[in-house]
Amino acid sequence: MQVEAKQAPQVDDAAPGADESASLLAEVDFKWLMAGQGWWIDTSRFHSDPSYAAGLLRLAMASPFFALRDCAATLLAQIGGPAA
């Protein structure tokens, strides 16, 4: 009887980790929740301009909608900003 050895799948170092995936999901949620309120996000500027990002997060934190405030708080915690 011949046994075939199978190689275990290799982990792709370029694949996003759990933290990166959670961060990306939070950003996508934030973008859609903001769009639902009529506030469109320039994602490249959101990543490159800290004052633009901070202004949008402040706007979201002042929203009457819990889901948007919660998402903004999650993003702030991920980037190490103040929660309010």
How would you explain this protein's 3D organization?
The chain has 4 helices and no strands. It has 84 residues and is mainly alpha-helical. It has a domain of 51 residues. The termini are far apart. The mean pLDDT is 83.
Shape: elongated
**Radius of gyration (Å):** 19 Å
Poorly predicted runs are none
**Mean pLDDT, as a whole number?**
83
Q: What's the tally of helices?
A: 4
Summarize the structure.
This protein is an all-alpha fold and 84 residues long.
Question: What's the SSE blueprint?
Answer:
Elements: H1 18-36, H2 43-48, H3 50-61, H4 66-79
Helix pairs in contact: 1-4, 3-4
Keywords summarizing the entry:
mainly alpha; single chain; 61% helix; 84 residues; elongated
